[in-house]
Amino acid sequence: MLAVAGGYLLGLGSNIDPEQNVLGMIDLLLKCFSTLHLSRVVHIPPVGMNSHRHFLNAVAFIETDMAQDELKRLCNQIEVTLGRDRCDPNSKHKDRPADLDILCHFGSRSDWQRSASSITDEYFLYPLMDELRAYLIKDIATPTLQSGTALTLDGLTFGETATTIHRD
After folding, report:
1. Per CATH, the architecture of 7-166 is what?
2. For residues 48 and 93, is the Cβ–Cβ distance under 8 A?
3. Taking the complete model, does pTM exceed 0.85, yes or no?
4. Degrees (nearest 5) of the Cα angle 146, 22, 168?
5. Does the pLDDT value for residue 149 go beyond 50?
6. What value, to the nearest 5°, has the Cα angle with vertex 122 and ends 79 and 81?
7. Element counts in the chain: helices (H) and strands (E)
8. Which of 91, 113, 116, 135 has the fewest CB atoms within 10 Å distance of its CB?
9. SS3 state at 102
10. What is the mean pLDDT of the chain?
C-alpha cells in the first residue's frame, strides 16, 4: 500500500563540504515542505567529471502539487544559497557544494512501479531510488545497500537508512 500521495523525486548531492551542504539542502527543503522522505545518505565517487572529491548523495521524495518549473526554480535557489555558481557554463562538470535535481514527478500509484532506469540515467542513484520506493510503499524486500552516513540536523540524526522527516 502506498504511504504517500503525488509529488517529486529529487536527487541530492554535494562534494564540497558535503556533510554541511547535504544538511543545508535538507534544512532548506524542510523550510518549504512539511515532510521530506529521504533515502540513506551515501558516499559515491564522482561520475562524469574529473575530481578526487567523493559526493554525499541521497534521494528525497516531497509530497506537493507545485508545478515542476516552480520547483526547479526553488531547487536552483537552494543550490545558489549554498554557494553553487549556476552562471558558470561548466558547473555541471565541476565540484559543487549543492546539486539538487528533479528526477521525476509521481502523480499516481502506478508511477511507483516505474524502474529507476526509466526515470534517470544517473545509475549511481538507482539503489537509493529503489530503497526509498520500498520504504514508501512499505515493501519488506528493501534492497541491500552500502552503509549510510549518519548526519545530524537540529538534534535529529538520520542518513543510515530511509526515513521520513517532518518539519516540526
Report:
1. 2-Layer Sandwich (3.30)
2. yes
3. yes
4. 105
5. yes
6. 5
7. 3, 8
8. 113
9. strand
10. 87
**Secondary element (H or E) of residue 55:** strand 55-63
150's grid cell: 549518519
149 close to 38: Cβ distance less than 8 angstroms = no
Length of the chain: 168
Helix (H, G, I), strand (E, B) or coil at 82: coil
pLDDT digits (tens, 9 = 90+) for 86-134: 888 887 878 999 999 999 988 766 666 777 777 887 888 889 988 888 8
Domain boundaries, the chain: 7-166
Between CA 72 and CA 63 the distance in angstroms is 15
Q: Which amino acid is present at 41?
A: V
Return the HEC string of 87-127.
CCCCHHHCCCCCEEEEEEEECCHHHHHCCHHHCCCCHHHHH
